[in-house]
TrEMBL record:
<dbReference type="InterPro" id="IPR036477">
    <property type="entry name" value="Formyl_transf_N_sf"/>
</dbReference>
<feature type="binding site">
    <location>
        <begin position="86"/>
        <end position="89"/>
    </location>
    <ligand>
        <name>(6R)-10-formyltetrahydrofolate</name>
    </ligand>
</feature>
<comment type="similarity">
    <text>Belongs to the GART family.</text>
</comment>
<protein>
    <recommendedName>
        <fullName>Phosphoribosylglycinamide formyltransferase</fullName>
        <ecNumber>2.1.2.2</ecNumber>
    </recommendedName>
</protein>
<dbReference type="InterPro" id="IPR002376">
    <property type="entry name" value="Formyl_transf_N"/>
</dbReference>
<feature type="binding site">
    <location>
        <position position="61"/>
    </location>
    <ligand>
        <name>(6R)-10-formyltetrahydrofolate</name>
    </ligand>
</feature>
<dbReference type="Pfam" id="PF00551">
    <property type="entry name" value="Formyl_trans_N"/>
</dbReference>
<keyword id="KW-0658">Purine biosynthesis</keyword>
<keyword id="KW-0808">Transferase</keyword>
<dbReference type="InterPro" id="IPR004607">
    <property type="entry name" value="GART"/>
</dbReference>
<feature type="binding site">
    <location>
        <begin position="11"/>
        <end position="13"/>
    </location>
    <ligand>
        <name>N(1)-(5-phospho-beta-D-ribosyl)glycinamide</name>
    </ligand>
</feature>
<dbReference type="GO" id="GO:0005829">
    <property type="term" value="C:cytosol"/>
</dbReference>
<comment type="function">
    <text>Catalyzes the transfer of a formyl group from 10-formyltetrahydrofolate to 5-phospho-ribosyl-glycinamide (GAR), producing 5-phospho-ribosyl-N-formylglycinamide (FGAR) and tetrahydrofolate.</text>
</comment>
<feature type="active site" description="Proton donor">
    <location>
        <position position="105"/>
    </location>
</feature>
<dbReference type="GO" id="GO:0006189">
    <property type="term" value="P:'de novo' IMP biosynthetic process"/>
</dbReference>
<dbReference type="InterPro" id="IPR001555">
    <property type="entry name" value="GART_AS"/>
</dbReference>
<feature type="binding site">
    <location>
        <position position="103"/>
    </location>
    <ligand>
        <name>(6R)-10-formyltetrahydrofolate</name>
    </ligand>
</feature>
Length: 186
């Protein structure tokens, strides 16, 4: 089974997925919409082919998603794992990969969707936040939830400490969930 990871930034989750033993699928492509993103060098170091594009060079989302879809079809990719891909997925990819696009979000959805979810939780003074893995639909962080894990916020936590705690959970949970999803779908 082949899969693609979509990312826009640092790529620590991409790295964690790549390092998981017996993941159950091959990550055959990294799709990235930010030519300067650090994730690109990580993919190159791991010999994962990359598809890097600039959205502003396309007339519409449908145009660049059609380009991506054609590449994924050519490679026979079955699954898309979003790992810090900072765009909504449009109808072109949603139709082709219905039920096979997964996202990770650093909060206990439906709390704190959207940008800077960790900062949102930190400033809200809640006692816990966490990590959610969910199916992607047309909304922003709204699809059906697959797995969640809580992360307590202690009164002494700085934002940086909270970020670290959440990342640790992300890097363990996302590869585990991917492994069980692909194994249950074969
Ligand atoms: C992660 O916190 C993920 O939950 C969110 O974006 C961040 C990506 O971080 N969707 P990285 O690029 O994987 O380091």
């Amino acid at each position: 089974v082949k899969a693609a990871v979509f990312a826009s930034g640092t790529g620590s989750n991409f790295q964690a997925i790549m390092e998981k033993e017996n993941l159950g699928c091959d990550i055959t492509l990294l799709v990235c919409d930010q030519p300067e993103a650090k994730v690109i060098a990580k993919a190159e170091a791991l010999h994962v082919p990359t598809l890097v594009f600039e959205p502003k060079q396309y007339a519409s989302k449908a145009d660049f998603e059609t380009m991506i879809r054609d590449k994924l079809q050519e490679l026979d990719v079955q699954w898309i794992f979003l790992a810090g891909y900072m765009r909504l997925i449009g109808p072109t990819l949603l139709q082709e990969f219905e039920g096979r696009i997964i996202n990770i979000h650093p909060s206990l959805l439906p709390q704190f969707p959207g940008l800077d979810a960790i900062g949102q939780a930190f400033r809200a003074n809640v006692e816990q936040t966490g990590v959610t893995i969910h199916y992607v639909d047309a909304g922003m962080d709204t699809g059906p939830i697959i797995a969640q894990e809580k992360v307590p916020i202690s009164k002494t936590d700085t934002l940086e400490q909270l970020q670290q705690k959440i990342q640790q959970v992300e890097h363990r949970l996302y590869p585990e969930v991917i492994q069980s999803l692909v194994n249950n779908n074969q």
